[in-house]
TrEMBL record:
Taxon lineage: Eukaryota, Metazoa, Ecdysozoa, Nematoda, Chromadorea
SMART domains: BTB
InterPro entries: BTB/POZ_dom (IPR000210), SKP1/BTB/POZ_sf (IPR011333)
Name used for this protein in its record: BTB domain-containing protein
Gene3D superfamilies: Potassium Channel Kv1.1, Chain A
Any Pfam family matching the protein: BTB
Taxonomic source organism: Caenorhabditis nigoni
Every BTB domain range: 98-165
Gene giving rise to this polypeptide: Cnig_chr_II.g7663
């Protein structure tokens, strides 16, 4: 009787997931032999490098050469790194680059007029000579919280932080109020390529905030009659614009 070790090796390459914010993959591989030459094996997996091998040695007790017929399945859970929160105090601190002060909830925010005006037509108008605020040394911004304004600015400032599924709605709301199309585009990219938000909610957001690329992608992802009809039956369907509802109905017609 000879105990022959058989080496199984899996090579994982998850660079694409890493680029989408995944920091780690954990789970296991389930290895089976249809010929019952060895018992089912469960191999723990903990991937912290984007290119990593997982190896398992299995002892085969047999006195002759055999041909193994094996199958395997893997079950992995992605873990997302918590982004380091931007310090709003540092973001809005006085510097040689800043030339005016905004006041939000009684807190002074030091900003650069040209930079904000470049990104936002709201601030371009606010800082112009046509508005009395443009000549003030301090300008109060009302009906917005300090944290929400910090979140908004941190999404397009040089030391920016990317949106996540918890911040997208607030960013879209703020970008519409302060006329910041670049922020809407950043959020649209997140929703289109990274977000785990369900398609019906994405469609509503795309419709509400005129994100055509996201809307088109979501419509195309309804790849069956069942998915398209299920969306039509949701309460959110009646809240959509006529244009978006017609796109969904058109998608249903594609499967008839």
């Amino acid at each position: 009787m000879i105990d022959d070790p058989v080496i199984f090796n899996w090579k994982f390459d998850w660079r694409m997931l890493y680029s989408q914010g995944v920091d780690r993959l954990t789970g296991y591989i389930e290895l089976k032999d249809t010929g019952n030459e060895f018992l089912p094996q469960k191999i723990d997996v903990d991937l912290t490098k984007v290119e990593q091998n997982v190896t398992k040695s299995v002892i085969i007790e047999n006195d002759s050469n055999i041909h193994l017929k094996v199958s395997f399945e893997y079950y992995l859970t992605p873990h997302y790194a918590h982004p380091k929160k931007v310090s709003y105090e540092d973001l809005f601190a006085p510097s040689d680059m800043n030339d005016t002060v905004l006041v939000v909830e009684g807190k002074k925010i030091h900003v650069n007029k040209v930079f904000l005006s470049y990104h936002s037509d709201y601030f371009k108008a606010l800082f112009s000579k046509s508005f009395k605020e443009g000549s003030l040394s301090e300008i109060e911004i009302k009906e917005v919280s300090y944290d929400d304004f910090g979140l908004l600015c941190s999404s397009f400032y040089p030391s920016h932080q990317f949106p996540n599924d918890q911040t997208v709605e607030k960013l879209l709301e703020m970008s519409r109020r302060f006329l910041l199309p670049s922020v809407t585009k950043i959020v649209e990219h997140h929703l289109s390529h990274i977000s785990k938000i369900a398609i019906p909610k994405k469609i509503w957001l795309a419709d509400e905030y005129s994100m055509d690329y996201l809307l088109d992608k979501c419509i195309r992802q309804m790849d069956s009659m069942e998915k398209a009809k299920k969306l039509k039956e949701l309460p959110e369907f009646d809240k959509l614009t006529d244009k978006t509802r017609s796109l969904i109905l058109g998608r249903i017609m594609d499967f008839m």
